[in-house]
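Before a colleague's protein record goes any further, I have to sign it off. Thanks in advance; the entry in question is below:
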Amino acid sequence: MSAQTLSKQDLDALTPNDLAQLAQRLENDDYSDPFEGLKDWHLLRAIAFHRKDLVEPYLYLLDNEPYDEA
């Protein structure tokens, strides 16, 4: 499943276990390709827009904290 292919039905079918597995992959950061990790990050971000109730325990993985790059 990718962020671009999420339907309303996909979002409604997600369980806390699904999100826990996604979060675990992101926390382990053990991807064979850096783009695979980025895909999971985008997937978590897309889910957060529609199912914040499921993503709330994992918001720290999205790193949405504002910071000054200067």
